[in-house]
Amino acid sequence: MTPGKSYLTSAEIRPLAERSNLMGAWLVLHCWGTIALAVGLFALWPNPVSFVLAVMVIGSRQLGLAILMHEAAHNALFRNRAWNEVAGEWLCGRPILAELAAYRHYHLTHHRFTQTEKDPDLVLSSKFPTTRASLRRKFLRDLTGQTGYRQLAAQVMMSFRLAGDDDAKKAAASDFAQAFKARDLWLSLPVFLAVMVAMGLAGAWWYGFAFWLLPYLTWFQFVLRVRNIAEHGATEVSENPLQNVRTTRAGPLARLFVAPYWVNYHLEHHMVMHVPCWRLPRMHRLLISKGLRDQMRLAPGYGAALAEAGWKTA
């Protein structure tokens, strides 16, 4: 049973789960438009500050593309299933070297077994709480590109290993984490490179490296980790949907640089996973109105969520 049905009636869930083609199209357009605007602002005012801001905004919108692919994986981005498949795959997933079908298989298993031994994401959340020093080292690796480079190199090596090897493909498919890392790189890479080329043609030749590859290797990896920690890090290892996942409040700056497209409402998403992201604040208010605030794991901000995950001193 959907966890939300323990707290919300079908009559309450039904309007929340209504999808909109217009809103889906706007979210995809908004994401790519924000990326274009970030590059354009640097082109108009080229300086170190506008460069860093552009990298941060674009990295957060790469996370935004991942979030919109996630929406499509739940068939919540558009009303039409085919539109979810096409947009989720080619406009959202492939440009960031992700693949919709592999992600959907992995992610739905996470929903089914959240914070239990069968949860494929438990390996991520079980590391927390950790020490502040460990957290700082992880963030340093992300922001200096070490995490992104290692993951990209591993992805390339895995793709070579699986190429033409049916036995290896079957072995990878039986392992969720490995299957997710062994995405079909050779379909995704041309799309990733096409974005870089488009940026180079629109501006200087190096724009693709500076404003697509660099954000992907750095800020995207950082905010992806922050998101993962905030969602399930140092939460209750149980089947309690109010305590095994966290919702984090996000102000305008957090939404711009860290948590686009209502991704911070993760508890609500786990309640009813096919509710579109833009309706999650409404679901949050509904749950609060039912007197559930004190039972829900909520963080007043991302700093507080990270503090919960990194409270150890040694």
Overview of the structural elements:
It holds the Pfam family FA_desaturase. It is an enzyme of class 1 (oxidoreductase). One of its GO terms (molecular function) is oxidoreductase activity. The chain crosses the membrane at residues 21-45, 51-69, 185-207. Its EC number is 1.14.19.-. With 314 residues, the protein is mainly α. It has one domain. The chain has helices at 10-16, 21-44, 48-73, 81-93, 100-112, 122-125, 132-143, 146-162, 166-173, 176-181, 185-202, 207-217, 219-232, 252-257, 266-271, 280-289, 302-309, and strands at residues 247-248, 298-299. It has a two-stranded parallel sheet with strand order 1-2. Helix 2 packs antiparallel against helix 3. The chain starts with 9 loop residues before the first helix and ends in a 5-residue tail after the last helix. Residues 166-183 have low confidence and may be disordered.
